[in-house]
Write a structure and sequence with these properties.
alpha+beta; 3 helices
Length: 134
């Protein structure tokens, strides 16, 4: 998984695609961590993206490195996890999220990973690097 993590770190921003009824929705995100060889992402329980993922967990994450002219496509089924250990790691690595997700705001951070996933890095010439997720 470190190849995905490294790519997302370099890009800084990535985009999460979901479905809202029959309409595609894409939004920029930046929060992700690596834990025990898996990549984890966060969304808020109060956001439409969370409701969309609960309705249809099939999502795609895309990011682009303009200096390398390569992009990442990471596609799979979003599976939410309830892990105090992972939650604490997210908040340690991304302390700015404490302002959004805390008892005073009442907002809950929902952490997910992708299962039944595939990932590839593609360059502008169409060359593809398949990422082994095993």
């Amino acid at each position: 998984m470190s190849r995905i993590h490294e790519f997302l770190d370099q890009a800084g921003v990535f985009f999460l695609a979901t479905e809202d009824g029959k309409q595609a929705k894409v939004r920029p995100l930046g929060a992700h961590i690596e834990h025990d060889g898996k990549e984890y992402f966060t969304v808020g329980d109060f956001k439409a993206v969370y409701r969309q993922m609960a309705e249809n967990p099939l999502v795609e994450i895309v990011s682009f490195l303009p200096t390398e002219r390569k992009w990442l496509r990471y596609t799979g089924k979003a599976v939410f996890v309830d892990s105090p250990e992972i939650t604490e790691q997210v908040l340690e690595e991304l302390p700015h999220l404490r302002k959004v997700y805390n008892p005073e705001t009442g907002n809950r951070m929902m952490i997910f990973t992708l299962e039944d996933a595939e990932a590839r890095i593609i360059d502008m010439a169409g060359n593809t690097e398949e990422i082994d997720l095993a």
